[in-house]
Amino acid sequence: MLSEKMEKALNKQINAEMYSAYLYLSMASYFESVDLEGCANWMKAQTQEEMIHAMKIYDFVIERGGRVLLDTIKAPQKEWDSALAVFEHAYEHEQLVTSLINDLMNLAIEEKDHATQIFLQWFVSEQVEEEASASGVVQKLKLAGAKEGGGLFMVDRELGQRALPIPMPAA
Q1: Is 43 helix (H, G, I), strand (E, B) or coil?
Q2: Which of 15, 120, 134, 167 is close enough to 91 for a disulfide, judged by CB 3.0 to 4.6 Å?
Q3: What one-character DSSP code corresponds to residue 76?
Q4: What is the number of other CB atoms lying within 10 angstroms of the CB of residue 56?
Q5: What is the domain extent for residue 113?
Q6: Ranges of residues in the chain whose predicted pLDDT is under 50
Q7: What is the SS3 assignment for 150-170?
Q8: What is the DSSP letter of 130?
Q9: At a CB cut-off of 8 Å and minimum separation 6, what does 12 contact?
Q10: Residue 27, domain member (yes or no)
């Protein structure tokens, strides 16, 4: 059974994951509006990943006898100056999410909630991957001088190859 404090913190993280999905969908929409279909594809895949994360936490709360209480999702940013600015924002956002996951882990440790600690370990590892992925795109855009033209076209084409995640069935 989850403590009230842990249940509240996990509910807050569900909201943060859904906001992340909303933010990445806004980024995809921006890319669609400037005809960068590969970048839009990358962000759509990221949107789906974030919803999978939210649902993993949702299912965990329910499995532990808690109650999921959804909250308002704030409106995301809608405009950026460049593809690089979008991916820099995505990278900064993933760093924020990492800090939120670390806070959850610290709470689970403080509460001696071993089941939640084990559950959160997946998210700790996932955030290493998430940060590396966003940072990698930032670096590619910088190396390609990809504000416009051929470099941006090449990176956009590469990002279009990202496959959309297939949700895993609930355990």
Answers
A1: helix
A2: 134
A3: P
A4: 20
A5: 4-73+80-159
A6: none
A7: HHHHHHHHHHCCCCCCCCCCC
A8: H
A9: 71
A10: yes
Predicted local confidence at residue 147, as pLDDT:
60
Nearest to 5 by CA among 99, 122, 112, 123: 112
65: left (phi over 0), alpha (psi -120 to 50) or beta: left
Q: How far is Cα 78 from Cα 73, in angstroms, rounded to an integer? A: 15
What is the pLDDT, as a whole number, of residue 168? 55
Instruction: Extract the tokens encoding 158.
Output: 């590469």
How is residue 84 written in tokens?
Answer: 């690089």
- DSSP assignment of 80-99: -SSHHHHHHHHHHHHHHHHH
Question: Domain with 12 in it: what CATH number?
Answer: 1.20.1260.10
Residue 114: the pLDDT is 98
Q: What is the pLDDT of residue 148?
A: 60
DSSP output for 16-40: HHHHHHHHHHHHHHHHHHTT-HHHH
